Amino acid sequence: QVQLVESGGGLVQAGGSLRLSCATSGRTDSRNAMGWFRQAPGKEREFVSAITWNGGSTLYAGSVKGRFTISRDNAKNTVYLQMNSLKPEDTAVYYCAVAKSVSLSGGSWFKQNYNYWGQGTQVTVSS
Q1: pLDDT at 26
Q2: Would you state the pLDDT for residue 28?
Q3: Cα–Cα distance between 100 and 93 in angstroms, integer?
Q4: Using an 8 Å Cβ cutoff, are 49 and 61 in contact?
Q5: Which of 102, 126, 97, 111 minimizes the C-alpha distance to 5?
Q6: Which of 54, 32, 20, 55 is nearest to 114 (CA)?
Q7: Exposure pattern of 23-59 as b/e (b: 16+ CB <10 Å)?
Q8: Which stretches of the chain drop beneath a pLDDT of 50?
Q9: What pLDDT shows up at residue 44?
């Protein structure tokens, strides 16, 4: 079993930055990929970014590419999401998750391919 706890969310003005953290505990020997998703009110949970265990491969949704950066520190069992140039449309609850696979693929975009989730952290971007 793996537990994930997100932190770092908050209220920020458009154009600002936030860094989200996802601390994992429990079965931390897993070398599976990890991802970030987000869910805005009334919308489906959508893929944001994913990263392999060694950080060698990353994926980004088109809407965040060039603005967000995913990274991980395996010594701290933590995955990060640096979010720059934030826009009001980035407002959502952000969730981290452990993928079922080690590598990234087209399946990394879909939430059913992740089997452990955190409780989420709210990000609100004001205009």
Answers
A1: 85
A2: 66
A3: 22
A4: yes
A5: 97
A6: 32
A7: bbeeeeeeebbbbbbbeeeeeebebbbbbbbeeeebb
A8: none
A9: 97
Tokens 């205009």 found at: 127
DSSP secondary structure letter of residue 15: T
Give 121's strand partners: 94
- Predicted confidence at residue 1, as pLDDT, reads 83
- Under 8 Å CB-to-CB from 121, ≥6 apart: which residues? 6, 7, 8, 9, 20, 93, 94
Token pair listed for 92: 């959502």
Residue 27 confidence (pLDDT): 74
**Alpha helices in the chain, H assignment, sequence order:** none
6 touches 117 (CB < 8 A): no
Backbone φ and ψ for 5, nearest 5 degrees, come out as: -130, 115
Q: Which two tokens stand for residue 63?
A: 């809407």
Q: What's the pLDDT score for residue 40? A: 97
- Measured over the CA atoms of residue 29, residue 80, residue 64 and residue 46, the dihedral's sign is positive
